[in-house]
Design brief:
- It is a single chain.
- About 40% of the residues lie in helices and about 15% in strands.
- By secondary structure, the chain is α/β, with parallel strands linked by helices.
- The protein has a single domain, classed as TIM Barrel, CATH 3.20.20.
- The strands form three sheets. The protein has an eight-stranded parallel barrel, surrounded by six helices. Strands 1-2 form a two-stranded antiparallel ribbon.
- α1 packs across α2 and α2 packs across α3.
C-alpha cells in the first residue's frame, strides 16, 4: 500500500486510518472479533489506528493494546486522544499515562486533544502536551474538532514542536472545513484526519441503522433534507466505473492533498472493500457530478 506523508512530519502512514470507537462498544463487536479486524488491517497494509480514552471508557485502547502485540511497534502509528474533561495540566499528564498503560506501549505516535474545552485555558493544555512531547511519551501533538481560531491559538502556545494534524468532521457532503480551516492547514502543512467519512452508512444508501447509531442519524435527519440525489449519484458513478459507493466516497477524501480518511469496520469483507478505494482516482467529470449533487442537499443547522 502506498503511504502518504503526515503533514510536516516525515511519517509515512496509510491513507486510510482504522477507526476504533466501535471496538469500545461490546453490543457492536466482541473483543475477539475486534482484535481479528485490527490484526487483519495491519496485515493488509494499514499502519495507522485511531482511538481515544473515551471510547468505551478505555476499552477500545485496551483491545488495541492486545491486538498490536504481535507486530513491531515501530511499524505502527497509534493515534489516541485526551478527553474534553481532562484538559487541565495535571489531568492531561494522568490521562496520557492511562492511555499508555491500556495501549501497552511506551509512547503514543500522535496525541490529540479530543475537543476544545472553553473553561480551560488553551495555554494550560498546550503546555502539558508539550511536556509529554519533551519526555518522549508522545511523538507528535494534534487536535480534534478545533476551529481555525482555536487551532491558531493552540499553536501560539507551543515552542518546542507544532501541531501535526487536526481531526475534523469531513466527507463528500459535509464540507464546512473547506471554507477556512482546511486551506489554512494546507498552507501550514498540517494534516486533516477526516472522521465520519462514510456518514455511518447513510451516504451509501444504507437503510438499516443500529440502535447505537440511531441518535446520530435522527439528529442528522433533523437538519439534512433531500439527501437522495447525492446518494443516487454516488451509486451511479460507482456502477459506471465498477466500484462500490463506499469506495467512491473514501477515494474522494484520500485523493486530496494532506487528507486522510478514518473508517470504522467490524468485518473483514468491509475492510477489503474499503481498501479498494486506494491507488486510483475519480474522473474530473465524477468530481463535478458529486459537486452538483451536493448542491441539491439542504443542510439547515437552525432546526425550527
Amino acid at each position: 500500500m502506498e503511504k502518504k506523508t503526515l503533514g510536516w512530519t516525515n511519517e509515512k502512514i496509510s491513507p486510510l486510518i482504522l477507526g476504533s470507537w466501535e471496538f469500545g462498544t461490546p453490543s457492536i463487536v466482541d473483543e475477539n472479533s475486534a482484535i481479528k479486524v485490527i490484526q487483519k488491517s495491519i496485515e493488509l497494509g494499514i499502519n495507522a489506528i485511531d482511538t481515544a480514552e473515551s471510547y468505551g471508557n478505555g476499552l477500545s485502547e485496551t483491545i488495541i493494546g492486545r491486538a498490536i502485540g504481535k507486530f513491531k511497534r515501530e511499524d505502527l502509528f497509534i493515534i489516541t486522544k485526551v478527553s474534553i474533561d481532562h484538559l487541565r495540566y495535571d489531568d492531561v499528564l494522568r490521562a496520557c499515562e492511562g492511555s499508555l498503560r491500556r495501549l501497552n506501549t511506551s509512547y503514543i505516535d500522535l496525541y490529540l486533544v479530543h475537543w476544545p474545552n472553553h473553561y480551560v485555558p488553551i495555554r494550560e493544555t498546550a503546555k502539558a502536551m508539550e511536556r509529554l512531547f519533551s519526555e518522549g511519551k508522545i511523538r507528535y501533538i494534534g487536535l480534534s474538532n478545533f476551529s481555525l481560531p482555536l487551532l491558531r491559538e493552540f499553536r501560539e502556545h507551543l515552542s518546542k514542536t507544532d501541531v501535526a494534524a487536526n481531526e475534523l468532521h469531513y466527507n463528500v457532503l459535509f464540507r464546512d472545513v473547506e471554507e477556512e480551516v482546511l486551506p489554512y492547514m494546507l498552507r501550514e502543512n498540517i494534516s486533516l484526519l477526516a472522521y465520519d467519512s462514510l456518514g455511518l452508512g447513510y451516504l451509501i444508501g444504507r437503510k438499516e441503522i443500529r440502535n447505537e447509531y440511531r441518535w446520530y442519524v435522527l439528529a442528522r435527519e433533523a437538519y439534512v433534507k433531500n439527501l437522495e440525489p447525492l446518494v443516487d449519484e454516488i451509486s451511479l458513478i460507482a456502477k459506471e466505473i465498477d466500484r462500490t459507493p463506499a469506495q467512491i466516497i473514501l477515494n474522494w477524501l484520500v485523493s486530496k492533498d494532506n487528507v486522510f480518511a478514518i473508517f470504522n469496520t467490524t468485518k473483514e469483507d468491509h475492510l477489503r472493500e474499503n481498501l479498494g478505494s486506494l491507488e486510483w482516482s475519480l474522473r474530473d467529470s465524477d468530481l463535478k457530478r458529486l459537486d452538483e449533487a451536493v448542491k441539491k442537499v439542504v443542510i439547515d443547522y437552525f432546526i425550527r
